[in-house]
Amino acid sequence: MADIDAWVWWLIGAAALGIPLVITAMPELGMLAVGAVAGAVTAGMGGGVVLQVIVFAVVSCALIAVVRPVAARHRAQKPQLATGVEALKGKQALVVERVDGQEGGRIKLGGEIWSARALDTDATFEPGRQVDVVEIEGATAIVM
Hints:
Elements: H1 6-24, H2 27-44, H3 49-76, H4 85-88, E1 92-97, E2 99-100, E3 105-109, E4 112-118, E5 124-125, E6 130-137, E7 140-143
Helix pairs in contact: 1-2, 2-3
């Protein structure tokens, strides 16, 4: 054990941090592993133990301080391209069968016939009128 250089221990530590990173998908462990690699590089260049620990701490903390907020911001962003029923919200549709807030009716939306009901229970839309889709509930479009 005494024959192993310090840089090897740092690489073993980096690998030991990399295994739980893969298992748990916690990016902080990856940043600590990069800090351990930086410690190994410092040890390989002849830096003392104190300098190795300082480099490890500074690199790890810097990565956590810089990368983590950027990742959190990207995770919180909504997708720029709406797909599925999300893409239908806000579209215009043509009423093909009388639509009201009680029994509903039918609309033509995106080339397909959908069941629909009015958002306002007192509203009624006659065939041939353009309506706006505000929500999709199951297979029913909510229009206004």
